[in-house]
Amino acid sequence: MLLPVSVLLCVLTTLAASVSDKPCGEFPWPSDDYTVNCDYRYSRPSYYDVVPQGRCQVRCPPDTEVLVGPPADGNQGLTDGFYYCNMANGTWLGSEPVCLGFYNNVTMITDESNGIRLVGGSSYGCVELYDNVTQQWGPVRGWILDNFDPIDDAQMEWANLACRNLRFSAGLATKAYVKREWFEDDMWPLEENYELYPLQYHYEPRYPPTVPKFVVSKSPAPQREGATLHDAIDRVVRGPCSEGDRDCGENAFGLCLACEGQQDSHTTSGASNHLSTAIAHACAMYAVTVLLIATAVA
Ligand SMILES: *[C@@H]1O[C@H](CO)[C@@H](O)[C@H](O)[C@H]1NC(C)=O
Ligand SMILES: *[C@@H]1O[C@H](CO)[C@@H](O)[C@H](O)[C@H]1NC(C)=O
Ligand SMILES: *[C@@H]1O[C@H](CO)[C@@H](O)[C@H](O)[C@H]1NC(C)=O
């Protein structure tokens, strides 16, 4: 009798503790690549199906400027760069943090056979295609991105296509959090230190009017094996865009994105897993002890 009751008690106690303090467990992506500050007592009224209870902020190192990973969902009011625990389903929103370096227009990744290159950084920047006719590289245009639009998945398909053409495994993001100024020693209280940007508005590549502009098709990105971004280009505008051609025009900044880094292939097992393992272990030890005592008494 004693044994099942104490095990039940143990499980109930740990359950209750985890429900009240950290309904989603610890922040699941600890790493030496960035610092994490959490306020597990944070809460605020719920937006739609998200009930924030606890939040964390990831701080990227000084030689980086962009953070990918926190939830970026305008429809849920989640655009401030914090990671939130959603009490509604006990899940941390967002994905593993990735800090991206600064943009510079001389760093590029090229795939000659697909006539594509990524200008800006080692795994991020803006996509350019090669034009056989003018023998020049030029930007992809007509690719419109809205911060608060739920067509994110469609945008990501274009990013996936471009990234695969560039020999990355997949796209990582088309919008991300850009660091604001902050003092490195001012770690508390947590303040909004990031601003959500479509990467095309953040990088804002500028080109002379003479470069070829590759206006992308309005249909969904082709998914089939071996598809290339070149295949999905509707028209190439050589020379200045005609007036009123908004898809070609200068303020249609282009296809800027981040790809899933090839080198960064390490997988993180969530700390919450470690935690539940630890709890299970503690409970098992407790049960064994109780059993031993019970046996000794008998
Ligand atoms: C938890 O809820 C959020 C917000 O609705 C959702 O995006 C997420 O996929 C859910 N996670 C799980 C594991 O159900
Ligand atoms: C590249 O960056 C430099 C310095 O910011 C700028 O002067 C130059 O115009 C840029 N070139 C292109 C092609 O964007
Ligand atoms: C460029 O043109 C050559 C032949 O004219 C063709 O074989 C090649 O596929 C073209 N490359 C691209 C990227 O369109």
Uncertain regions spanning at least 5 consecutive residues: 263-279
**Number of strand elements:** 16
Please tell me the overall pLDDT: 81
User: What is the share of helical residues?
Assistant: 10-25%
* Small-molecule components bound: 2-acetamido-2-deoxy-beta-D-glucopyranose
Strand content: 25-35%
Count the DSSP helices. 4
Gyration radius (Cα, Å) is: 24 Å
The H/E string reads HEEEEEEEEEEHEEEHEEEH
The global form is: elongated
Report the sheet with the most strands, covering strand number, pairing sense and barrel closure: 8 strands, mixed
Structural class: alpha+beta
Amino- and carboxy-terminal Cα gap? 13 Å
Short note summarizing the structure:
The longest helix is centred in the C-terminal third of the chain and has 27 residues, at 271-297.
Describe the structure.
This protein is of the alpha+beta class and 298 residues long. The chain has a domain of 146 residues. 22% of the residues lie in helices and 27% in strands. The strands form three sheets. Strands 7, 8, 9, 10, 11, 14, 15 and 16 form an eight-stranded mixed β-sheet that branches. Strands 1-2-4-5 form a four-stranded antiparallel β-sheet, with no helix packed on it. The longest helix has 27 residues. The structure holds 2-acetamido-2-deoxy-beta-D-glucopyranose (3 copies). One 2-acetamido-2-deoxy-beta-D-glucopyranose binds next to loops.
